[in-house]
## 1
Amino acid sequence: MVGQAPAADTTIRQRLWLSRRALFGHLALVVWLPGCIAATWWQVGIARAGDSLGWIYSVMWPGFAIFGTVLWWHIVHDDPATRARRRQVLTQAAAQAEQERAHRDRVIARAEAEDPELASYNAYLASLSRGGQAKRWSTP
């Protein structure tokens, strides 16, 4: 039985490659790649007829084909569990950023309590921020 995949691995592969999302990706790729090849061929013909801009487009369409292939790969291989883990990491990062922001605000409040000049300057900056007035070099 050398070279055979376990049954669980086969089921995961089938779910990965034959899911509704993956089938849509396969269909889109089957339409996209020949379209890009046809557009490339068309632009090469235009470029050979004398329009030098056609050379740029004849290079651009294979780039679109590569982009479509990379997008297809991500559509097929990005599973819901991975997205959930990514969402959880982003939520944790946002919570950590909020804690850091709160800590920074406490440090600033302590510094303002010790220095009234700093407090007045920060109040001035806050009033400018609330004013909504466009900043100009001539505005003091």
## 2
Amino acid sequence: MSDGPTFDEPFRAHLLELFQWRRDVRRFAGKQVSDKLLDDLIAQAVLAPSVGNSQPWRFVKVADPGRRKKIIEDFQICNQEALDNYHGEQAQIYASLKLSGLRDAPAHLAVFADIETSVGHGLGQRTMPETLKYSVVGAINHLWLVARAHGVGVGWVSILNPDNVGNILDVPQGWSLIAYLCVGYPEEEHLDPELVRANWQQRLDVSKLILER
């Protein structure tokens, strides 16, 4: 039995720094992300664990201008509907937020879960079938961190109609949208999240989020 790798204190410090500087990016510079780098990010993302080794993640590179235009139109509709649910000062803050980088991001990546996959033979899914989707979220987090390590930013656009996105991208019926990602080099860098700077929501004290039983 061989020994595993040793991660020293400087590595752990860099890892913490990577976590701290992972941001949801919405403002992108004009620099292109190469196809090779995007493929490398995906290849490292799928090192994530998956329930029953089902590997349910499916990635769609959205390069067609017509499809991108339809995605942006869907975002605009959903964003207006979301704004209509806020009132007063909160509505004003919401309207001022930049909630997507769809127009500026050089790369668009839609990430789906294949909920009908037979890979993994259903192991671990009988009592918690949602673990298929959770597995894809884990892969997205891997991609986000490795992208940051390459100086690339990622923005998760959740203000979209998942069914519309699936239809626009013409994916198989059994695929469920998990994330629509904008990928590119950031125009600016910030250690604090944009929603904290905009006074939308401050970070919670982690001690308030832990229970003992």
## 3
Amino acid sequence: MERAIWLTVLASFVGLAMLGGAPAATGQTPDLPKVHLKVVGSSGIPRQFELFEKPFFTKTLPERSGGRITTDFVSREELGLKGFDDMRVLRQGTLDIGTSQTLYVGGDEPFAEGVDLAGLFGDIDTAYKGHMAYKPVLDERLQKKFGLKLLTLWPYPAQVFYCKPPIKTLRDLKGKKVRVFGRTLGDIVEHVGGASVTITFGEVYEALERGAADCGVTGTLSGNAARWYEVTTHLYTLPVGWSTTMHTINLALWNRLDPKVKEFLLAQFSRLEKSLWDFGRESTQDGINCNTGVGECKYGYKGKMTLVTPSAADFALRDQILRDPVIPRWLKRCGKDCVGPWNETAGKIVGIRATVP
């Protein structure tokens, strides 16, 4: 979408907000002031958008607040936002709440990458502990540097490799063009001799189809929702990340809100965050089942991909690459003031203590 078009959409948001939003529903909470919020969600393709984000903002918040909290809600694609764009419009106050992936944000704020470095958390339970440990320091950083308040921090399914050429091991990525969406993922691909290419999610299908990319990294169910199984043959399930995503709110707006509204929103976002973590656990295996056509496929489309299970040597190589070059390169981008907070949170969870590069 062209910039002029999404600016028009944003302008309509402002107009709706001035009109006061939707009417209050029956059974409203009498002690909550009315608040109308302009919200941009994540990509409209993965299941989390339709199953969780959209109903949360368009139904759950209004219903649980008795119609006192209302929203205008659209996907990132509808506004033509990419990468760090949503963070910028949040800072400007054009939007109130936005959904951002930490690896995209990492281009402007490397500190955000620290919670989802390639290979950092090998399973979702460890990822949960690490994310919850990192969440307070990330919130502090976002407030001080960008004027944004962190509301949620949650995962997509495990990020794995969809490949058109047959592969059996991590080293088979050598010479392959691999779609990534963050520098830390690029580090792991390039270390084994692959070429990392950055392609927006909505354009990857075509890139894989015409050979602009040989492989692509995304979630097990996310890639299925985008039908990558139609243009790839091998699903290599070495987890290299979680496509960590966050909801943030403009801090100036947050500080103006009535304390009762803040309390209400924090409680509701906490419930949303838990639901998204639960779905991350369930959808990782469901995505594998759907792509391969083996086992129950609850949320996706059945494909016929060949499942490639990583070996112990693959896991060992991934862990080695995490320690060097992934973490040193990240710290070089992030700076020495990132070392302490990371060591005491995410690093402590996985038993790694980084040093100043």
